[in-house]
């Protein structure tokens, strides 16, 4: 059981640590110190839900309906392009880090949910892949594996969101934000292209 749990932690971290739109957004919100707990909670709980669904066998159902994944692919790519354009616009008028700037919680929640659920890779990685690997650990071991993967997700998003505060002092110059926004915009476009080509 412990082997399944540790394997779940390591496998979950291996899939989630890769730089992507969701991780970039969590980092950005962490640096801004705006609604970090909400963003981290949505990401971690969403991962937990998708992992549990995958282990319960929903992954097989998704695999049988490629049209649904194709629709999600195009919606996700469109959203990533919009996010990239927004980042490039921010780069044109960079501002220093504002810790007290008003940001609507509803907008943060909507963006976090969109970056989570409009990404078809989250279904491929979390539901299909983790679900299939978990089910190789037997009836009891698969749930220990799932618990490990959920733990890895909670640890990663918490570290990324709340750990971003450590770099916040270095983010006081508008020029730093210009570079960060350009990097995030380019990354979003690249992910959108890779998404469409996959």
From TrEMBL:
Transmembrane regions: 6-26, 38-62, 74-92, 143-164, 176-196
UniProt GO MF annotations: amino acid transmembrane transporter activity
GO-annotated cellular components: plasma membrane
Superkingdom as given in the UniProt entry: Bacteria
Membrane topology category: Multi-pass membrane protein
InterPro entries attached to this UniProt entry: LeuE-type
Keyword set, alphabetical order: Cell membrane, Membrane, Transmembrane, Transmembrane helix
Cellular compartments annotated: Cell membrane
One Pfam family, short name: LysE
Chief localization: membrane
Name of the featured protein: L-lysine exporter family protein LysE/ArgO
């Amino acid at each position: 059981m412990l082997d399944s749990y540790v394997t779940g932690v390591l496998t979950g971290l291996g899939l989630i640590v890769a730089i992507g739109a969701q991780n970039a957004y969590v980092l950005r919100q962490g640096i801004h110190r705006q609604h970090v707990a909400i963003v981290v909670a949505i990401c971690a709980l969403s991962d937990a839900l998708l992992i549990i669904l995958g282990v319960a066998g929903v992954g097989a159902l998704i695999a049988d309906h490629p049209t649904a994944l194709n629709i999600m692919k195009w919606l996700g790519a469109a959203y990533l392009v919009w996010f990239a354009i927004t980042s490039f616009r921010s780069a044109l008028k960079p501002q220093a880090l504002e810790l007290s700037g008003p940001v609507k919680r509803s907008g943060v929640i909507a963006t976090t949910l969109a970056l989570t659920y409009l990404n078809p890779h989250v279904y491929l990685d979390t539901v299909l892949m983790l679900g299939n690997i978990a089910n190789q650990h037997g009836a009891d071991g698969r749930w220990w594996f799932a618990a490990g993967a959920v733990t890895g997700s909670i640890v990663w998003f918490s570290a990324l969101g709340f750990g971003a505060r450590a770099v916040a002092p270095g983010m006081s110059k508008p020029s730093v934000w210009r570079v960060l926004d350009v990097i995030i915009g380019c990354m979003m476009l690249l992910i959108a292209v890779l998404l469409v080509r996959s």
